[in-house]
Amino acid sequence: MSGGEAAAEARPEVVSVACACCGLTEECTPAYVKAVRERFGGRWVCGLCGEAVEDEIGRAGRWISTEEALSRHMSFSESFRAAGPPLDTGENMIAAMRQLLRRSLDSPRATRSSPSSPRRSVEEDGSSGGARRSLARSGSYLSTAAR
Protein backbone atom coordinates (compact mmCIF):
# COMPACT_ATOMS: atom_id res chain seq x y z
CA MET A 1 0.00 0.00 0.00
CA SER A 2 1.44 3.40 -0.94
CA GLY A 3 1.39 6.53 1.26
CA GLY A 4 -1.37 8.11 -0.86
CA GLU A 5 -3.65 5.09 -0.47
CA ALA A 6 -3.09 5.01 3.30
CA ALA A 7 -3.95 8.71 3.57
CA ALA A 8 -7.14 8.19 1.55
CA GLU A 9 -8.21 5.34 3.86
CA ALA A 10 -7.48 7.38 7.01
CA ARG A 11 -9.67 10.27 5.81
CA PRO A 12 -13.30 9.85 6.94
CA GLU A 13 -16.07 9.91 4.35
CA VAL A 14 -17.83 13.28 4.12
CA VAL A 15 -21.12 14.26 2.56
CA SER A 16 -22.36 17.70 1.58
CA VAL A 17 -25.61 18.73 3.29
CA ALA A 18 -27.67 21.93 3.21
CA CYS A 19 -29.35 23.47 6.25
CA ALA A 20 -33.15 23.25 6.18
CA CYS A 21 -33.40 26.77 7.64
CA CYS A 22 -30.76 28.99 6.07
CA GLY A 23 -29.51 26.87 3.17
CA LEU A 24 -25.88 26.87 4.33
CA THR A 25 -24.02 23.90 2.83
CA GLU A 26 -21.50 22.02 4.95
CA GLU A 27 -19.40 18.91 4.59
CA CYS A 28 -19.99 16.50 7.47
CA THR A 29 -19.54 12.83 8.26
CA PRO A 30 -22.61 10.65 7.70
CA ALA A 31 -22.69 9.77 11.41
CA TYR A 32 -22.89 13.46 12.37
CA VAL A 33 -25.58 14.13 9.77
CA LYS A 34 -27.61 11.20 11.13
CA ALA A 35 -27.30 12.46 14.73
CA VAL A 36 -28.42 15.98 13.77
CA ARG A 37 -31.35 14.65 11.74
CA GLU A 38 -32.47 12.50 14.68
CA ARG A 39 -32.36 15.55 16.93
CA PHE A 40 -34.34 17.79 14.55
CA GLY A 41 -37.03 15.44 13.27
CA GLY A 42 -35.35 14.30 10.07
CA ARG A 43 -34.13 17.75 8.99
CA TRP A 44 -30.48 18.68 8.84
CA VAL A 45 -29.83 21.98 10.64
CA CYS A 46 -26.49 23.81 10.72
CA GLY A 47 -24.88 24.65 14.06
CA LEU A 48 -25.92 28.30 14.02
CA CYS A 49 -29.56 27.50 13.32
CA GLY A 50 -29.43 24.70 15.90
CA GLU A 51 -28.34 27.26 18.51
CA ALA A 52 -31.15 29.58 17.38
CA VAL A 53 -33.66 26.74 17.83
CA GLU A 54 -32.35 26.11 21.36
CA ASP A 55 -32.62 29.85 22.06
CA GLU A 56 -36.20 29.79 20.75
CA ILE A 57 -37.03 27.01 23.22
CA GLY A 58 -35.52 29.04 26.08
CA ARG A 59 -37.34 32.24 25.14
CA ALA A 60 -40.76 30.65 24.69
CA GLY A 61 -41.78 31.17 28.31
CA ARG A 62 -43.51 27.80 28.29
CA TRP A 63 -42.44 24.34 27.23
CA ILE A 64 -42.38 23.95 23.44
CA SER A 65 -41.13 21.02 21.43
CA THR A 66 -37.99 21.10 19.33
CA GLU A 67 -40.23 20.72 16.27
CA GLU A 68 -42.24 23.83 17.19
CA ALA A 69 -39.09 25.84 17.90
CA LEU A 70 -37.61 24.67 14.58
CA SER A 71 -40.81 25.69 12.80
CA ARG A 72 -40.64 29.16 14.38
CA HIS A 73 -37.01 29.58 13.41
CA MET A 74 -37.65 28.36 9.86
CA SER A 75 -40.47 30.89 9.41
CA PHE A 76 -38.19 33.63 10.75
CA SER A 77 -35.44 32.59 8.31
CA GLU A 78 -37.87 32.50 5.38
CA SER A 79 -39.22 35.97 6.16
CA PHE A 80 -35.68 37.29 6.50
CA ARG A 81 -34.65 35.87 3.11
CA ALA A 82 -37.90 37.05 1.48
CA ALA A 83 -37.18 40.63 2.50
CA GLY A 84 -34.57 40.91 -0.27
CA PRO A 85 -31.24 42.65 -0.17
CA PRO A 86 -31.07 45.88 1.81
CA LEU A 87 -30.84 49.16 -0.01
CA ASP A 88 -28.44 50.50 2.58
CA THR A 89 -26.23 47.99 4.39
CA GLY A 90 -25.76 50.42 7.27
CA GLU A 91 -29.50 50.51 7.89
CA ASN A 92 -29.61 46.71 7.67
CA MET A 93 -26.88 46.40 10.29
CA ILE A 94 -28.69 48.81 12.59
CA ALA A 95 -31.97 46.91 12.15
CA ALA A 96 -30.24 43.58 12.83
CA MET A 97 -28.59 44.94 15.98
CA ARG A 98 -31.92 46.41 17.12
CA GLN A 99 -33.63 43.05 16.66
CA LEU A 100 -30.79 41.22 18.43
CA LEU A 101 -30.98 43.62 21.37
CA ARG A 102 -34.75 43.30 21.63
CA ARG A 103 -34.55 39.51 21.52
CA SER A 104 -31.83 39.42 24.18
CA LEU A 105 -33.79 41.77 26.45
CA ASP A 106 -36.88 39.57 26.06
CA SER A 107 -34.93 36.41 26.97
CA PRO A 108 -35.17 35.20 30.56
CA ARG A 109 -32.01 35.72 32.57
CA ALA A 110 -30.23 32.77 34.09
CA THR A 111 -29.76 33.32 37.80
CA ARG A 112 -26.50 32.40 39.43
CA SER A 113 -26.13 31.48 43.04
CA SER A 114 -22.43 32.27 43.02
CA PRO A 115 -20.18 34.45 40.89
CA SER A 116 -18.68 32.89 37.79
CA SER A 117 -15.14 33.51 38.98
CA PRO A 118 -14.13 32.90 42.59
CA ARG A 119 -12.94 35.85 44.60
CA ARG A 120 -10.28 35.62 47.27
CA SER A 121 -10.54 37.38 50.55
CA VAL A 122 -7.62 39.38 51.91
CA GLU A 123 -6.92 36.68 54.52
CA GLU A 124 -6.66 33.90 51.90
CA ASP A 125 -4.57 36.12 49.69
CA GLY A 126 -1.92 36.73 52.30
CA SER A 127 -1.60 40.35 51.29
CA SER A 128 -1.84 43.15 53.79
CA GLY A 129 -3.79 46.33 53.55
CA GLY A 130 -5.98 45.04 50.72
CA ALA A 131 -3.51 46.19 48.07
CA ARG A 132 -3.51 44.10 44.93
CA ARG A 133 -0.32 42.37 43.96
CA SER A 134 1.14 43.28 40.63
CA LEU A 135 3.33 41.19 38.41
CA ALA A 136 6.89 42.43 38.23
CA ARG A 137 8.60 42.35 34.88
CA SER A 138 11.85 40.41 35.07
CA GLY A 139 13.20 41.32 31.67
CA SER A 140 12.48 41.53 28.01
CA TYR A 141 12.18 38.52 25.75
CA LEU A 142 13.68 40.51 22.90
CA SER A 143 16.92 41.26 24.75
CA THR A 144 17.61 37.53 25.23
CA ALA A 145 16.44 36.59 21.73
CA ALA A 146 18.81 39.08 20.08
CA ARG A 147 21.90 37.49 21.65
UniProtKB/TrEMBL annotation:
Residues 103-147 are annotated as: Disordered. Residues 107-119, 130-147 have a biased composition (Low complexity). Pfam families: DUF1677. It comes from the Eukaryota. InterPro entries: DUF1677_pln. This is DUF1677 family protein.
